[in-house]
Amino acid sequence: MTELKDNINKSKLPCHIAIIMDGNGRWARERGSHRIFGHQNGVTAVKESVEAAGELGVKYMTLFAFSKENWFRPQEEIDALMQLMISTINSETETLIKNNVRLLVIGDIQSLPVNIVKKLNEVIELTRENIRLTLVVALSYGARWEIADAAKRIAEDVNSGKLEKDAIDEKIFSEYLVTKNIPDPELLIRTSGEFRLSNFLLWQIAYSEMYFSPTLWPDFRKEDLYKAIIDFQKRERRFGKTSDQLKCE
Ligand code: FPP
Q1: Which one of 79, 105, 127, 196 is separated from 62 by 20 to 30 angstroms, measured CA to CA?
Q2: In terms of residue numbers, what domain contains 47?
Q3: Is position 122 within any domain?
């Protein structure tokens, strides 16, 4: 019997997959449980997705783990999420190293608790040279914050004479974003049947293919990722050109 995975064309893999992990709260509610129980079970889906990406040969995977807007959630939930982040990083460090996975974090890092920042920096350093897969965790991240922050730093550099105003173009602007040196996602997945971008990587997804999965995040497994990739591979990516032009390339 052919498995779903066998239908993936390894020569047409998306280089970078970004995921909006959504539905933890609803998953928990369906079970009459607290939202935190949903987040805890979401960790299994994180592990499955990262493992599947590494096995397939996807080079970058970005996970939206905590948004700037998430700071407005009840303090109890924020604390539990931060705790979960720390315990997951602690328990998974060895696996990241063993599997040649590099960890990066994007977002307003200064706003995170110091113990988290310290731990993250340790693991980022430990995995710095790993090349199989880059796992990018978006923490305290918001695209509008990121773009405004980039504009502010560009203005500072123009004022100090470090940057010429007329030199500012899309490429220069990208270098002021938190995703500097990370290729744009080719595939963006959102789980839980919601069709929103929720302030995630708004600059970087200009040409990304969107895939919306009805699965609640804690139920997301390797097969769900395979389905998204297979769907991505059926699409024709035109980048503003016509079908005929693409055939000639
Ligand atoms: C969205 O579901 C999920 C989050 C805000 C948190 C995701 C975090 C994890 C899975 C923890 C571990 C992550 C890493 C990378 C170690 P929701 O709470 O918005 O769900 P709802 O829309 O059903 O309420």
Answers
A1: 79
A2: 2-142+184-233
A3: yes
